[in-house]
Amino acid sequence: MSPDMDLYRLRNCIRGPGDPLYKYLRTSITEALRIRFLVAFITESGARLMAKPLEEAAGRGTSITILTGTYLYNTEPYALKYLQEKVGLSLELRVYAETGRSFHPKAYFFDLPHDSEVFISSANLSWTALTTGVEWSYRLRKSLAPADYQLFDEEYQRLFADHSQPVTEDFLREYWQEWKARAT
HEC string of 102-170? Predict the structure, then answer.
């Protein structure tokens, strides 16, 4: 492992912009057996930044799920389509579907060969947030805080199973129209 990768495996407190979350996510993706993202929104820039490492993980057989929101129409429809096209069938992409409630979490889960971890963050899936923005994140390791990790894990699973819908061609077509209408 390179000295940089050692740093990104050891440090838990991430305080961009001089210490961007992207480098930590990239390091975890290279080892992950399973990847789960929970983000309030995804931009095209974030999708383009993360597509290649996620595509590489998918090529290794890594299971990847992403749950995002459409609250306030901040998620860009092309970002969803781009991730589906680049990452492929290994990606299960869903959107939060409970109406009348804000959706603003940011968490990045990784199941690794010898542990699991979640980055609890202020950073959504956008290039700026993951690379140059003032964003704070904290890595919680399952081995060090199993009860806390389990609470986050169970809540992700509950939201994914009970309060989301898959991103299908029909969903994208409808959302794209709504998103464009909001932009004009």
Answer: CCCCEEEEEECCCCEEEEEECCCECHHHHHCCCCEEEEEECCCCHHHHHHHHHHHHHHHHHCEEECCHH
Domains and CATH numbers, the chain: 3-183 (3.30.870.10)
Q: What is the pLDDT of residues 27-84, one digit of tens each?
A: 999 999 999 999 999 999 999 999 999 999 999 999 999 999 998 899 999 999 999 9
pTM higher than 0.90 for the full model?
yes
Answer for the pair 137, 122: CB distance below 8 angstroms, yes or no.
yes
Residues 41, 106: Cα–Cα separation, whole Å = 9
Q: Compute the average pLDDT of residues 103-112.
A: 97
For residues 122 and 85, give the distance between their C-alpha atoms in angstroms, rounded to a whole number.
Answer: 27
CA distances from 57 to 13, 42, 143, 165 (A): 25, 19, 23, 24
**Residue 51 near residue 26 (C-beta atoms within 8 A):** no
pLDDT of residue 44: 97
Strand bridging mode 13-15 / 34-39: unpaired
Please say whether the beta carbons of 31 and 58 come within 8 A: no
